[in-house]
Amino acid sequence: MNQDDDLAPIAEEVTQETGDHDEPEDARQTDAYAVLSEDTEAPKTPQDYLRQGEKILAEGNVNEALDRYREAVRLTRATGQDDTDTRVELGDAYAYSGQGLNAYRQYKRAIKQSPRKAEPYFSLGELYQRYGRLDAAIAAFRQAVRLASANAYYRYKLGDALALFGDLEGAISELEEAIHLKP
Questions:
Q1: Which of 23, 48, 123, 128 has the fewest CB atoms within 10 Å, counting from its CB?
Q2: What residues contact residue 56 under an 8 Å CB cut-off, 6+ apart?
Q3: Cβ-proximal residues to 176 (8 Å cutoff; 6+ apart), any chain
Q4: Which residues contact 124 (CB under 8 A, 6 or more apart)?
Q5: Is a pLDDT exceeding 70 seen at residue 38?
């Protein structure tokens, strides 16, 4: 399928909205494709792919969004850059789409590559908490807090997990610290 086939349903909507019905239908569609082509420039960088993935995911097209995220990881690695953050974003997209095992794999790869970055631990903690693994979530959140102790949201999430786990004293301590960091 070529790009024009992908844009056909959208092109029809744009054609209908323009009200240019005096022209032959083919001319109206050509104009609609021109408008769409200007707005949908092909991604060139990993960041472009990530932005497109976010937009497409928000529109509900999970498979196409995951393709964009995977391409961002591939491009990041191909250029020799650190792909930790890109992997975390791919993991987040997998988690959002209900693919917990794939999300877990991406977070673990990111941790293995950059064990001194907090975000992969935090995202792993959120995944564990979503699946009811509070003990593992707390361990992951604690590691994220160790690496980024000034991050109020990480402390808040640790406090939340501790409260759910039944450690109210620990939860209060973390939540107070979160408030202290960001009143």
A1: 23
A2: 64, 65, 68
A3: none
A4: 104, 107, 108, 111, 140
A5: no
